[in-house]
Structures
1.
Amino acid sequence: MKLAINGRFLSQKITGVQRVASNFALELSKIAKEKGIELVVYSPEEIEQKMIAQELPTQKLFSKKPYLIKWEQFVLAKQIKKTKEFLLNFGNLAPIFLSKNQAVMIHDLAFIRNPQWFSKGFSYYYRLIVPRIAKRVAFIMTVSEFSKREIVECLKVKEESVVVLPLWLNDTFQQEVETPPSAAKDNYILTVASIDPRKNYKTLLRNFSALKKYNLSLFSVGDISKNFSQDEDLQIYKNDPNITFLGRCEDEELISLYKRALFYSSMSYYEGFGLPALEAMACGCPLLLSDIPAHREVCGDAAIYADPCNDYEIQEQIKLLIENEHLREELIQKGKERVKIFCKEKTIAILLENLQQHHC
């Protein structure tokens, strides 16, 4: 089996999509020899994720103008046409003219459901190209049953052409984590995500700030978008002494934050999967999440939920978790069991089965 991976993600900063692509690439590279796979990861010349690239069978493809769109649509496509490898694209996009010699992972359809969350250029390009790619590839990969339903409905593709590949935690999070008992947790709430409109940060910040009597802190991990400094509402919270914006954290530091947090919260409007919630469960951190399909699918009864548009409900659930130590401990135990469902061996087996079905 001759496989190539679109290594565009190696030239980008790590967010959710890039982390998923890295996990798939690293796992496939580990099993390639055993499974009789000839694997190569094609990347642009400029690599951001140098350490990850060193662990992969990376081959750089030169482009006179290193624009990622041009590299992906022309340079990478030309290489695949030459080598006849089957191309795996884990980052929502793929060369549009390769036809059935590839598969693409579409994580979610936020750019269709809520285009106002994105820049006009980004939204236009994705809405233009993703539906066309979806109809040309051998099969579509996605991360949840919720995203599969979205793809079938919005992109008008056959249900059997969409394969669900549940995500898993990387090796750092797979290690045994000693979690302090609920009563010994530190006095802070943790949230992890890039700060952008779909994550509904203002709602979480607003409702946290309304509960000052508990004397809690809120730690926010994730990149701050360019719009942050221009948003007067967010600037108010940035000056709140009880709210700390930590920016990007390495996995080891993030694990420590999860372990010590009183609980983790996300009031996101829309997710395809919600990987930080899985990370939190693995680290013994109770969950308060927005009541959206992806969160329900991934976390089940190992979390409590609130309507992300209902301030009263959010505040009541925050108070419940702060005051109810027994509930927090119950969620910790349920989370540790729930996370066992998400197994890389099972997911990779599903992927390999689909590759074999398409005679790769």
2.
Amino acid sequence: MKIRHVLLPAIAALTLSVACSSDDDNGHGNGSTQKGITGVFVANEGPFDQSFGTVTHFDQESQTVTQELFQSVNQTQVGNILQSIGVTPNHFLLVANNSGLIRVTNDDFELVKTIEDLQSPRYTLQTGPGVVAITDWSTDAVHFYDQSDWTSMGSVACNSGPDRMLLDPSNSMLWVINSGGFGTDSTVTRINAASRTAIGDVKTTGRPNSLVRDANGDIWVLCGGTKDWNDPANNQAGALIRFNREGDEQARFTFANPNPSPTRLAICPSGNTLYWLSDGGLFSMSTTSSDLPSSPWVDGSFYGLGVDPSSGDVYASNAKDFASNGEVKVYSDNGQLSHTFAAGIIPGNFTFK
């Protein structure tokens, strides 16, 4: 893919920006003041096996958009299928799933290290001072790395397809979604992040895909349900499940229609409003609700979802035809569209710093 040239003043402006925020409620950041590039980062996956993923940067204050940020700063490609962008106080971690690469940059997006010893990495999360966890489908495990030199500190086995993670700060418990990978799973593995030992699994319905922690400290897990592509009559509906911090199920909301695959669970900064994507659009629900919503909060076709942990603005991406550039729509917490900006091919996950 041909790299689009970004004007030097735009990069200079990004490099000089300073902010104080955390990435999200999943424990990526520590809330301390950091120098470097800040704002919203969109992981554009890129076409499978045909090209490279890219990063779109959006500055909320100036509403300036910079395309292909990683390539512009480093004059190299990030890799095929940019699955996610993790963040620590001093680093970004760009996970190129299909290439088996984790590009580690400083907070100015300058490449400092490439981790190449995982074949199918998915997501990263800082789990303690100087320690980063990375999920990997090829080994069905969570791998821990020392941030001082990015060497391996060992791994903890999970079930099939370990994916997104959440760190509960109240008890240092790492919750790891087992999405099923290329098959099917219905569990979440709980790991003691301090000792890096497995505590056990909690049972969900088929194919859990995302999770958040609410204002009361409960953990919500969204499951897409299982699909039989040969006979849709065998499809099993997804569910939204609430657990307490010890892993005991507190409530289960099963979707009426077994055909859609609800995904991309997110939560507002105050921890009392849930968001997710499903057929028909973007859905919203209070954590105190006794029923699932009957209609979308915002109608539309969306692929990725993120919530700004500072403003509460909701970012929803449209991958369009999955071959050309997509776009991102930004909604205020009352559901009003406030801004739209262009992204790269298949805009998926969002990172806030």
